[in-house]
Input
Amino acid sequence: MQRRGYLVDAVVATVVLGWTLLMIANNGLGTPDPSARGLDGVGMVLSVASALPLLARRTAPGTVYAITATATLALLTLHYPIDVPVGAAVSAYWLSLAYSGNPSAARRLVAMAAVVAFTPAVTLACATAGVRVLDITTELLAWWAIFAGIWLVGDRARLRREQLDHLRERIRRAEHDAERERRLAAAEERTRIARELHDSAGHAINVILVQAGAARLLHERDPQRSRAAIGTIEEIARSTINEIDRLVRALRDDAADEPPPADPGALEELIARHRASGLHVETRLDPPPRPLPNSVAWAAYRILQEALTNAARHGTGRADVTVRSDPQAVEIDVTNPTPAETGARPTPGGHGIIGMRERVTLLGGSLHTSADTGIFHLRARLPLNGTSV
Output
């Protein structure tokens, strides 16, 4: 961007220099003045002085205006045919852009006076060169209007640039706040998952303790039952280790409600509660071929809970729910119509969607949401083996 700015400045300075030299070489833009001075070495040097400083118009607008305006006045005093002071006009615009909003009132007034006083200085330069001022009154009034307008245009451009900068800053802050909210929602969901894992592991350890005590007591009296208790301990320990590995390995960052029961009947109870609250729910629930891991059962419950809440809050009072189970994964499909006239629908950036996606990601699954032609569709796939299929 900086190189591009330098290139633009170089182009502007070159165009201004070419315009000035062309005016002098052609004896002005209008009717030639026989008494006007032609292009010579002095005219060339002053033309360069009126254009070349524009290369620094962004960094030193006050100095640039002083040099270009002085060089232009020198050209007019020496009776060079400068019908349009392009260099002084361009530098006056950048002076206005830089100082019209300066906190110092004195600097603001000095910059404004310098721009507005250019036309009286031109009048004095023309009079010094022997030009009858009355003959160029129209041109001088036009120059005065142009330079006064340049100050106003520069001031408006500055205000617009400040408004754009303010808008960009607001957008940046809004994006930062949204990202912070997303991270907070994800952290809260991970905390809830960690609590569920804690409860699951605590229950498994209690069972292991009971079975270990039974195995110890039955070791001599009933070796067969003792071996069965040890086998139960081994099975529960292996299942708990797998459960912990699936969740803890994905919890990257750091009070929530109690976790729901991790059994298929909990989904039916959840749907029944939403029906009782007024939501019309059509369901198709396929029983799983084997008991679900606690993490998958809890994730399914939470996802369906959030999807039905969204349907009740943003939809038209109806939802279609399908839960399919196979040996590889559990799939949840929820479809609900949304009011077309208001365009209300769950937003992909909401905390509910973030929480669902976090749970699905922890299990190695996938979550897809879409809202087309007044229908919101959610589909979640929760693999039973911890990998996405």
Summary: The domain at 184-248 is CATH 1.20.5 (Single alpha-helices involved in coiled-coils or other helix-helix interfaces). The CA atoms of residues 99 and 108 lie 6 Å apart.
